[in-house]
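Exercise 7.
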Amino acid sequence: MIVSGRAPGFVMSAILMCVIALAGHDAQTQPLKQAQPPKAPPAKVEPELPPQTVLMPGLYLFQTRTRDGSCNDAPRTGYVTSSVATLDGVPGSRTMTMQLLNSKYWPTWTLIVAADGGIAGSANMNGSKDESNGVSKFEIRSKKERFQGVGSRNYPSTVDGKQIRCTLNYDALLKPLD
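Solution. The predicted structure, written as tokens, is:
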């Protein structure tokens, strides 16, 4: 393509003017601020509870007595199991760990002491990470030199060749060993 002498200068001038105009426009505009996520409302802060004085770390006796069960594989009503338990944790802490030294099904428990002095315990069957293998929970309160209450276990079992969930209700006792 043959271009006359004036056309290349005209084209170059037009391109140069566009570049200058665009540069001037960018200099006049302010940079865009990056969008900030909306601020979440302040989290509701629970008042700090004072250290608990109900349950101290140490050596305990943990007993359960069967009240009733939904499957025939549960021990009969009145059956008592006894375990030596260690309560591990910081004195005054509201959360502690209980290890049952002679329990193969419920070896590790988490205990939580409520503000009103009630104690809730929970364990997963065979020390598993989730409740699908079975879970045992109890709630106990101080009564003289020991803690008493009730609990229940929910666990899988095979009955007549079918996999079902069974429930066993029990009385719970936790007593310090001197």
